[in-house]
Amino acid sequence: MVISNKVIISCAVTGSVHTPTMSPHLPCTPNEIAADAIGAAEAGASILHLHARDPETGKPTADPNVFMQFLPRIKQSTDAVVNITTGGSHIMTIEERLAAPLRASPELCSLNMGSMNFGLYPLLGKYKEFKHEWEAPYLEASRDSIFRNTFADIEKILDQLGKGHGTKFEFECYDTGHLYNLAHFLDRKLVTPPLFVQTIFGILGGTGPDTENLLHMKRLADRLFGKDYLWSVMAAGRHQMPFLTMGAINGANVRVGLEDSLFAGKGRLATSNAEQVQIIRSILKPLSLEIATPAEAREILALKGGDNVAF
């Protein structure tokens, strides 16, 4: 594992897990996504992980025209690394998920390292009514669908974005098998170090939010990748801050954001992504850990630089 006293804070601004009913602070329109992303960068996030939503309904969308309504504004307002999803949502095809990043040619994209069950349907029981007709069926669909990321899908993304655009990746690993999948692509020389490995805890269908799982994922990544990877941790819902703290103590970088959790404390909704960035900074400070700037994050991750992107 790459060891550094600089901690990279990523912020996942809106994602495709939560729906508008769940929080009035979830950014959905291009203006809201841009403003929240810029605020997170100003608060100290050096990487901004971005999805798009339909401006009228807040439903996750892969439409590159929607992405292009907020990407240029973010680039003009901050030097943060823009990280565009290739995961999209569980109901999108791989072609839909690639449309925006192929248009934008970003320096960094997320890449899910295996197919999995991705259960959002338990959220249905927490709300009596939904603002939009699409929300309940969208959540229910996760009961009987697979979040597809086949070996062929991964190869396609690596070829079209990695080889074709010079894009590097945040490798999202929801389980130990995903780490082995990444090692397979490393053995085939289809990915190049340093690998930015995001280990994810607390999603139904992936690794559970247990402390031993966090340590096990690190030990396994250490064995598979040695000094060729940079470790980061994210966790869903109420597990977000405790897991990020444990990860940081053990040398990890961290990811916050309203994609992963809507809260800023027990029973208290976060009013913005910037609030979560500020909370994790307050946790990291007593640990004598410095926050990486965007320039430092680019150097650590060996990115191509923001001037080469297409937006």
What does this entry look like structurally?
- It is built from eleven helices and 14 strands.
- It has a single domain (6-301), classed as TIM Barrel (Alpha-Beta Barrel), CATH 3.20.20.
- It has helices at 30-43, 64-67, 71-77, 94-104, 135-141, 151-165, 176-187, 211-225, 240-249, 273-284, 294-301; strands spanning 6-7, 9-12, 47-50, 52-53, 60-61, 81-84, 108-112, 168-173, 195-201, 229-235, 253-256, 263-265, 268-269, 290-291.
- The model has no long low-confidence stretch (mean pLDDT 96).
- The protein is α/β, with parallel strands linked by helices and 311 residues long.
Task: Give the structure's gist in a few sentences.
With 311 residues, the protein is α/β, with parallel strands linked by helices. It has 11 helices and 14 strands. The strands form 4 sheets. It has an 8-stranded parallel barrel with strand order 2-3-6-7-8-9-10-11, surrounded by 8 helices. A two-stranded parallel ribbon has the order 1-14. The protein has a two-stranded antiparallel sheet with strand order 4-5.
Biggest sheet: strands side by side, in what order? 2-3-6-7-8-9-10-11
CATH superfamily: Aldolase class I
β-strand percent reads 15-25%
CATH topology: TIM Barrel
Distance between the termini: 33 Å
Task: Present the secondary structure layout.
Elements: E1 6-7, E2 9-12, H1 30-43, E3 47-50, E4 52-53, E5 60-61, H2 64-67, H3 71-77, E6 81-84, H4 94-104, E7 108-112, H5 135-141, H6 151-165, E8 168-173, H7 176-187, E9 195-201, H8 211-225, E10 229-235, H9 240-249, E11 253-256, E12 263-265, E13 268-269, H10 273-284, E14 290-291, H11 294-301
